[in-house]
Amino acid sequence: MCMNDSGHKTISINDLLKKNGQKITPARLSILNIFIKNKIPLCALDIYKELLKDKKINNINEVTVYRNLSSLEKSGIIKIVNLRRDAVYFEMNNDHHHHIVCTNCGLIEDFKENKNIEKLLEQIAEKSTKFKNIKEHSLELFGTCKVCS
Amino acid sequence: MCMNDSGHKTISINDLLKKNGQKITPARLSILNIFIKNKIPLCALDIYKELLKDKKINNINEVTVYRNLSSLEKSGIIKIVNLRRDAVYFEMNNDHHHHIVCTNCGLIEDFKENKNIEKLLEQIAEKSTKFKNIKEHSLELFGTCKVCS
DNA sequence: TTGAATGCAAATCGTTTGCATCTCA
DNA sequence: TGAGATGCAAACGATTTGCATTCAA
Lengths: 149, 149
Fold this sequence. Notes:
Two copies of one chain form a homodimer. Chain A is built from five helices and eight strands. Chain A is an alpha+beta fold. The first copy, chain A, has two domains: 94 residues, Arc Repressor Mutant, subunit A (Orthogonal Bundle), CATH 1.10.10.10; 54 residues, 2-Layer Sandwich (Dna Ligase, domain 1), CATH 3.30.1490. In chain A, helix 3 crosses helix 4. The structure holds a DNA duplex (25 and 25 nucleotides).
């Protein structure tokens, strides 16, 4: 058990993996550490480059990165973020928030979702005639940042 | 000028292309007709298969489909839809709505966005410290439909 | 007439798969 | 010990590019 920046209790990476039914392997630990250190969405290549940079880490194959991203996503530890880029981006699935994305330079600003929006989305989900379980949503804003405008 | 299903005035495809600075070519007309006929998001391969089926249409190369989807999207006639699938999906950009997507069978249900949500999103945009122009947003719900649940 | 659109072949990019080997639990 | 994880090479699917030719305006 340790503390994060804001002083909240957080579980260790080991426990996080165990809790979600994932074996603890060096690759998995390294990848999760990169997500925790870099607080922005990352794609497979981003992760792979970070792994190469860190000389304390034995080289991890790019394919292993893809496989781990897949298993971490399926187990719910990380989630996919829609940034309208060519590659698939992921981030930790521990803090519900959304993004404003600059379509010119790629800058990302986070925003916390308003509780009112969540309620409205729930209402929409209830009204649906064809769906029973609506579990997730994507909500991202796109535009140009102050520098690019 | 012609009428659509709901009796609203709609401009012809020719005018739509002209208005958005696109040359009128057989490929472009055929592709737009497919979007208008099928009222669901379509990817390049979907379009290409539809073109092959229709024997009134001279075969159009798959690459031409990609190039046209790109130019139609850049000119604002069609827009990209985030369905969390591998290929890029597009639909006509004339009727602002969002989607509920079944992550199991791919079923898509449309929903009109609540005006309250739009207001809340505008507030979020105004609060942003790093962005000046926020023009678009993605908002899709994901879950399982009644059949798959 | 001219810049844009097309077709074809080939290349590219992100991602996945098969298979032998290794490792965590 | 056995299921899952890894590395390597190869395959794959979606999309893009180069280039010569054709076409819309």
